[in-house]
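Recap quiz, item 2
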Amino acid sequence: MIGSKMNWANLKKTPTHAVDGSVYAPVKPIAIEGLGVEMTYQSGRQSFKVLKGIDLQVQQSDIQLLMGPSGSGKTTLLSILAGLLTPTGGQVFLRGEDITKMSRSQLANFRLRNIGFIFQGFNLFPALNAIENIEVALNIKGIKGSKAKEEAVYLLEQVGLGEKGKHLPRDLSGGQKQRVAIARALAGHPPLIMADEPTAALDSSSGRAVIDLLKGLAKGEGATVLMVTHDPRIVDVADRILELEDGMIKSE
Ligand code: ADP
Ligand code: MG
């Protein structure tokens, strides 16, 4: 490598050979990091500590899963890591930047440029058709006009909804709405993709399409995917699985 240009794309594909002939994989940068993340919910005079000091790291271009029983704090943790919820303690670094130190507008701007979040609910605009729902997301990210429309149509095709572009959310099934929401979250190629049970409402073939899409984004484009899921098909493609239990990460 000495004297030649270091190229990240090549680095990932070409393991390095040490002088003794052993091969070691290059270290990938940390894309998502939580340090001592705590969350205490307050209801009246009762307080309830859901997260008790979570440390976690997700490497770039990995597909990492967050598992654990219902009520263990998966959605809370994912929301904190995505900057949607402020933790009561600890720090969150996304692509090396401490989001817990950002102002509201800095965080909003950072989220827009970096994070595609797939919610458990769909959060689609009811008066806009499928294409328009995605176009709006692209417009907010600065992609406008025919370019936004083309990208929206392409994304819908990617999730297997090419023919449903003109349909309003009320004329789509739950699984189809979920796929529009996924296409919208992926609009503009966010480097960080976070998803809360994205395939739960999907039949097996559309679930498969979504998994293939996420896998392609991670392995082909270097996107980092952090997902709450119990889908065994996603477990098959995951690089790492973290389990939450009693507000802590269960040791691997
Ligand atoms: P999971 O996604 O693993 O099912 P959640 O993060 O949704 O878990 O919830 C973890 C715990 O925190 C649950 O006991 C839940 O009732 C509680 N909780 C979640 N959100 C709130 C909130 N906004 N206010 C108070 N308690 C909450
Ligand atoms: Mg949840």
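The pocket of magnesium ion (ligand 2) is lined by residues 74-75, 196 (CB under 6 Å).
The first strand starts at residue 16 and ends at 17.
End of item.
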